[in-house]
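A reminder from the course coordinator: this example appears on the midterm review sheet, so study it carefully.

Given structure:
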């Protein structure tokens, strides 16, 4: 196997669709809840997770850092990269023309802000798409948006915790209050994840 898809909700399925679109069939799926009968679903045996069989883990954003697979990789120092659908999108489009990218995070109001902003842009006659935590995985967004159009991404603290490759023209942090402490471990980690959105800004870009 070359890849392990960890989590088989909408994000995991979009990663699978992407791999298949690239004629990549050497992957397995680990999911703790799904009854999906995909032939690629693994037996969820940690003994099968090793560097020889898996070169990358594509993680769904809801998977906590203390998940058995992540803990197994860390404990045994396997060095298997953990990547997201965002990483796939941005690394696969690095040499192509990209739309203007707006990233929005915050504890409350993200989805509403993303959708309202999309409608405002559309009302000017400019094409815009919304994706991310708003409910539509980024790999389902159109790859044909031009550099004068907009892609608006709702970014949760979970996504920001894991992402490695992200390029934003504008970043917005709506608010930060105590939330998801059980997932992040403490308020400081949660706040750090939210504030990290600023590090993905392109040159001459800004955080609001």
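Designed residues:
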């Amino acid at each position: 196997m070359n890849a392990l898809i960890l989590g088989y909700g909408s994000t995991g399925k979009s990663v699978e669709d992407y791999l298949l679109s690239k004629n990549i069939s050497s992957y397995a799926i680990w999911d703790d809840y799904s009854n999906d009968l995909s032939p690629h679903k693994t037996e969820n045996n940690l003994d099968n997770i090793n560097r020889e069989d898996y070169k990358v883990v594509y993680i769904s954003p809801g998977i906590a850092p203390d998940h058995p697979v992540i803990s197994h990789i860390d404990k045994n120092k396997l060095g298997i990269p953990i990547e997201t659908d965002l990483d796939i999108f941005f690394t696969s489009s690095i040499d192509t023309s990209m739309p203007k990218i707006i990233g929005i995070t915050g504890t409350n109001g993200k989805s509403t802000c993303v959708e309202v902003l999309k409608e405002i842009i559309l009302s000017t006659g400019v094409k815009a798409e919304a994706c991310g935590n708003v409910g539509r995985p980024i790999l389902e967004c159109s790859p044909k948006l031009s550099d004068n159009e907009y892609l608006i991404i709702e970014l949760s603290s979970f996504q920001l915790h894991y992402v490695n490759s992200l390029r934003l023209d504008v970043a917005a942090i709506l608010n930060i209050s105590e939330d998801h402490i059980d997932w992040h471990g403490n308020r400081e980690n949660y706040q750090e994840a939210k504030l990290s959105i600023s590090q993905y800004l392109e040159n001459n870009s800004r955080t609001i």
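The chain has a mean pLDDT of 89. Residues 110-123 form the longest helix (14 residues).
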